Structures are given as structure tokens and as C-alpha cells.
Amino acid sequence: MNDLTGESLDGGNMDPVIRIGDTVRRVSGPWTPSVHSLLRHYAEAGITQVPRAFGLDGAGREMLSYIPGETMVALSPEEQWSPTLLDQAARLLRRLHDASTPLIETDSPWRMESHYPVQVICHNDFAPYNLIASEGQLAGAIDFDMASPGPRLWDLSYLAYRLVPFAEDAEGFDEERDGTPDNRLAALLDAYRGDVDPAEVRPMIARRLVALAEFTEHRAQETGRTDLLDHASMYRRDAARMRTG
Questions:
Q1: Keywords on this record (predicted)?
Q2: What is the pLDDT of residues 21-43, one digit of tens each?
């Protein structure tokens, strides 16, 4: 590993993500102090499954601690769709949401717009590709740079979309082995312990996916990446299915 350039990590659809030693370096911006304050609130709440913020390096990039393990999408289907990881992901999301509430009344700048009603600071991409697993257990969550204020269900519905799953591209999911989506949704909501009515989830998934499709289409125009348009089309198809299903 080169200490100057580092090791490029998977993901980083928005910006490059580089590992140098036990740290991760990412592009910083006006939102970075808000994100680092959020990470400190998590630490003060005793949450160890998120990166620690170390400020900026000499190149102006944010420095974060590296969480060892594999993203859930890199696991075998049997591991990725295990009830244990579903349960632990929902419980971690609840802890993150609860720890974030002191920040919702501040005027801190965030990279993403707020969504209403504001109840917590949302991760905005709490999904298997941003969840780290190790030895069959959830080791952590990463990529908080897109966090912003919003309703609990904004995050929870997207986790359900990706992990129940309702997504069209949920490779390797097997209802006979992994459980039906209805049963998995009930288990996810029970683990989150938020008294969420399952009937609220599908409409919020649809709302969430339309917003994500619009964001992805705009990103495709900015970057010239036509592959992002395929993702946006899938989000719109899945949103329509959530409305009718």
C-alpha cells in the first residue's frame, strides 16, 4: 500500500474513497464538520460500529477510521440475507437515529437536502453496500457523508427496500431459505422497535425511490455515466411496484 496515494476502496460513486493504513480519506466539503459532529455524537452514545473522525489531512481530505470486514453485498447469499444481519442492521439504525436527535435543531450545513418531517439525522443510504460484516456479525456502517435531517422512516424504508428485500436487483435472495418479504419486513420493524405500521413502509419506499431516481438521473448528467440511468430506471419500476403491490 502506498502511503501517498493509498488503496482505492470499492464504492465511492460520489467521490473517490482511499484507504491509507488504518484510515479512510474522502473528499471534504462544507458538510464535513456536520458529519464529524454526527460521528462524535455516535461515539458519545457508545456506538462503536461507525467510523471515528480525525479531521482533515494535508490534502484537505477528511480522515476517518477504517472498519475492517466486507460489505454485505460481497458476502455469499446465505450470509447476506441471514436473519442475524437483518436484525442487527435494524437495531444499529435505531441506535444511530436515537443518538442523532440533538443535532436536528441546529443550523448545520448538510450535503443532502432535508426531508420532512424532521425527526433524526438520516444516513440516506443505509443499505447492504454500506454495511460491513465480519464473521457473520454486523461490524459497522460507513459512508455518512450524505447524511441530513429527515424522518426515521426515510432511512428505515430504504433499508427495507434493500434488505427485506423489495429491490429488483436483490441477487441470491431465496424465499424458501431466507423467509418471505412480509415476514422479513415484520422482523426488521420489530428489531427497529419504532412502532412502525408495515402499511406505511411501501408508500415511503415509493417516495424514497422516486427521489433517488431523480438524484441518480441528475448525477448521470453531471458525470456522463450512462450506467446510472439503468439504476434510475430500476428505481422507478420498483417505486411503481411499491404503489400497486
A1: Transferase
A2: 999 999 999 999 999 999 999 99
